[in-house]
Amino acid sequence: MESGFLLPDLEDDDAAPFWAGTARGELLVQACTSCGRRRVPPRPMCPACRSVCHAWQPLSGRGTIWSFVVAHPPLLPAYQAVAPYNVITVALDEDPQLRLVGNLVARPDGPINEVDPSTIRIGEPVRVVFQQVDDVHLPRWMRERT
Amino acid sequence: MTTPIKDRTAIVGIGQTAFGKGLPDSELSLACQAISMAIDDAGLRPADVDGLVMYSMENMREVEVARNLGLGDVTYFGEVGYGGGAGCGTIGHAAMAVATGQCEVAVAWRARKRAAKTSRPWANVNQRLSGPTQWSRTFGLLRPVDEIAMLARRYMHEFGATREHLANVALAFRAHANRNPHATMYEKRLTREDYLKARWISEPLCLFDNCLETDGALAVVIVSAERARDLRQPPAYVHAFAQSIPRQHQVMTNYFCDDPLLGPSHACARLLWKHSDFTPADVRVAQLYDAFSPLIPLSLEGYGFCKRGEGAAFTDDGALEWPHGRLPTNTAGGGMSEAYVHGFNLILEGVRQMRGTSTSQVEGAECCLVTSGEGVPTSALLLRR
After folding, report:
1. Is A68 within a domain?
2. Where in the sequence numbering do the catalytic residues of B fall?
3. Helix, strand or coil, per DSSP, at residue B256
4. Complex ipTM
């Protein structure tokens, strides 16, 4: 529990199943069981049909880079230590309107500052990997080999 | 349709403390000093004040403000949320309260010691993340600048905007600050070369794409149009007011909706212009919320000065610069070069433009658009002389 990174509350009312999924190596999305609409981030009620019934569906873990930043200091100490690092937003293949924020890494266990930022391009295909930080399994992303 | 608040109220008093870093006075003290100056500026007395509207983020309570200033019986008080989105909202709520008779003399203010690191919301790291921030901060998107940089990169990609466009914004506001002795950057020039070689903060945004970190306080007094005519200052009438939480919006990290670059200003602008006798073509001076430079092209589009995707190109040819630009903007220097007090300084500059007392006065401007935070639930005012 000592990495110094900001990490999610694994017992969050809405997101706990997501983080339980990443711990099993699954990327899950909340979907309404009444109308089928998927929603990111998760929330109690479906904005399309107002149902509070939902299930968690597995995703392929594939997407494309929608945008990205390269963060430089000043940052919190744990982040400053690895800066500059990238943060990407990924549009998911199942529905490009569904997006997740993450990081581009060069290897499944690689750090978030290893990919040369000048080579990152919007539209690049990526696939998910999971990295453990303290007690949390974070989805990160590697370039899809084409 | 009828617009019950149109021109019914006016800003008749303004006050502000010095801007700085590490000011010795507390936020409460700064707030009371700014409000005191605004009451004096209006020619009113503390006992006349019976309405208070503040940002939800204020670190003080209305009762403390009332007790320190020696106010009389306060009959209306309210708060507006979402940080930099609240500024024009506090004026609008005060105007509605005065127009509907809930109070007669309302005060709105913002006091902040932003320069202290402990005052930065993103620096609070004491607990696990829950709610919306877990989907971004977990991955190192820590600061407001990181959150806006993600949108800025996408905006540049979709619409062909460049750093040169963002430099247009930074340089225009700095030039205005260089004419305003109260501005933090009054004596500091900024060149295009300075901008282009500045250190990165969150690529594609550099140091000069960011607002300042400021300690200070500002306040205004709002009364009915009838009462305003008897007071000492030229009234800045509240012609139109609007707020918006656009559909599907997520605060700052608005990446999860169908059209993330369609910011809160669009919905706010629809109501604002609906209630206004003016159109964007009539507006010759504007104060646009500028926590970060990319918010300017987004706001220019949202408030209808150009079409979507054209906001960056709008800034070319000195468009934002006093005196010859087509829309001199942030004529006191804005958040990027005057002071960053959650946008409240933009409201006071709008009032000065209507009084004719700006250090970059736009001659003949009948109205001034003032906007609050883009990227968060927002608000806007159209002031008229």
Report:
1. yes
2. 289, 340
3. coil
4. 0.97
